[in-house]
Write a structure and sequence with these properties.
By secondary structure, this protein is α+β, with helices and mostly antiparallel strands. The chain has three helices and ten strands. This is DUF1566 domain-containing protein.
Amino acid sequence: MTQHAQQSVAAADLPERGQPLAGGTFFARYWLNGEERALVLLDEELTGAWGEYGQVVAGAKSYSDGAANTRAMAEAGSALAVKVLELGAHIPSHLEGALMMSAKADGVITLREDRWHWLSTQYSAYYAFLMDFEDGWIDSNDKHYERLVRPVRSLIIQ
């Protein structure tokens, strides 16, 4: 069952980076689809395959909108995406992954460095993007491999 997650935050209530917000840690402000947003890293860590090797997921090609990518992945049958959506969260996009790495480098959040993490941005029918948080490398790999995911929430700043 999907958790009801906070959808927005008043600008006056936005904490400093690295502080608790919406069930996780607030680490970045950014613009998405004409709205300023707050990005929150959840503590949960999930493992699974991105999706089916050889399947094009047309709605998972955004480099910025991880929520849209994750919904498209779930609709295409990704068990990992379904689990993340049940948390009221999404798998970070290419951009959101870069923002995570920046926050990690600034000491705002902690991320595992010993394994690659899936991003929700699809590279092709066979590959999706993933990130190494030891040094910030972004690459692509076979969708059927098991990788980590650290779910995030993106809240509209009002």
